[in-house]
Specification:
The protein has a single domain, classed as Phosphatase 2c, domain 1 (4-Layer Sandwich). About 30% of the residues lie in helices and about 25% in strands. The chain has helices at about 50-70, 80-105, 150-155, 165, 205-210, 215-220, 225-240, and strands at about 10-20, 30-35, 40-45, 110, 115-120, 125-130, 135-140, 140-145, 190-195, 200-205, 245-255, 265. The strands form two sheets. The protein has a six-stranded mixed β-sheet with strand order 8-7-10-11-1-12. A hairpin with a 4-residue loop joins strand 2 (about 30-35) and strand 3 (about 40-45). Helix 1 (about 50-70) runs antiparallel to helix 2 (about 80-105) and helix 6 (about 215-220) runs antiparallel to helix 7. The longest helix is centred in the middle third of the chain and has 25 residues, at about 80-105. It is globular, with a radius of gyration of 18 Å. About 45% of the residues are buried.
Length: about 270
């Protein structure tokens, strides 16, 4: 007798942004397309309101263009095809932001970091630009999946400073790669295996600069639902100083026939 096949992995999403305790506006943006199993997070930079424009353009553009492609894609689409689609959509978003910055003096120099996750069955195609991050929470352990595109990370990689020195550096927010700053930008992509009950955390540096990885892991361990965990992370980042806007996207991989749900974007 043939064994019944295991039900496919489904995904649950929760996304939230918060202004923090210091900034007067919110330049972080999040977007989720549950039908495409797509999650996007961006942290904008630039002059007054320009960062908010850049991050909003990036998330809205990629959600619309990549989300539509993923929903319309046939089952025969390969991981290579998905990576190529991500590259094209991010390139188009980059050019749109770059052109807007060069056409409007008030937006000169604007740009944004980016994290994009495409969840397909037992695989995650993850792309990122800048110092916003993605982590995996699996079996009680939090693992950083992305590597910052930042001056500090380059100095750490070169052995010029230690991670401990980087934590107190005055150059924490100098990124070496951003969407919209130049006419071309490279999306770094990696493929990851997904297991049932994995949680994936995307965040801006408003979270990762305020909390150590072990503190974030401890908060995830204390909460059984995505909304409770995400909001606990935001509260903790604010209690630690809230020096920047905070963006959090949590995605849970569910074994069985759990219905995919999403709440987004909740901004406060």
């Amino acid at each position: 007798m043939d064994r019944p096949s295991a039900p496919p992995i489904s995904f649950e999403f929760y996304a939230v942004t918060d202004r923090g305790r210091v900034r007067s506006n919110n330049e972080d943006s999040v977007a989720v397309d549950e039908g495409a199993s797509l999650a996007i997070l961006a942290d904008g930079m630039g002059g007054y309101n320009a960062g908010e424009v850049a991050s909003g353009m990036a998330t809205a553009f990629i959600r619309s263009e990549l989300g539509r492609w993923l929903i319309e894609a046939t089952p025969k689409v390969t991981d290579v095809d998905v990576r190529r689609a991500m590259d094209i959509c991010v390139d188009n978003a980059n050019r749109a932001i770059f052109n807007a910055a060069n056409s409007n003096p008030q937006y000169t120099g604007m740009g944004t970091t980016l994290v994009v996750g495409v969840f397909r069955g037992a695989r995650l195609m993850l792309g990122h630009i800048g110092d916003s991050r993605a982590y995996r929470w699996r079996a009680g352990r939090l693992t950083q999946l992305t590597r910052d595109h930042s001056l500090l990370q380059e100095q750490i990689d070169a052995g010029l400073i230690t991670p401990e020195q980087a934590a107190t550096s005055a150059h924490k927010n100098l990124v070496t790669r951003a969407v919209g700053v130049e006419d071309v930008v490279l999306l770094e992509t990696h493929l990851h295996a997904v297991l049932p009950e994995d949680w994936y955390l995307m965040c801006s540096d408003g979270l990762s600069d305020m909390l150590e990885d072990d503190e974030m892991g401890a908060l995830l361990a204390q909460h059984a639902t995505l909304d409770d965990a995400a909001n606990a992370l935001v509260v903790a980042a604010n209690e630690a100083g809230g020096r920047d806007n905070i963006a959090v996207v949590l995605v849970a991989a569910r074994g069985g026939s759990v219905t995919t749900r999403s709440w987004w974007p909740f901004k406060r």
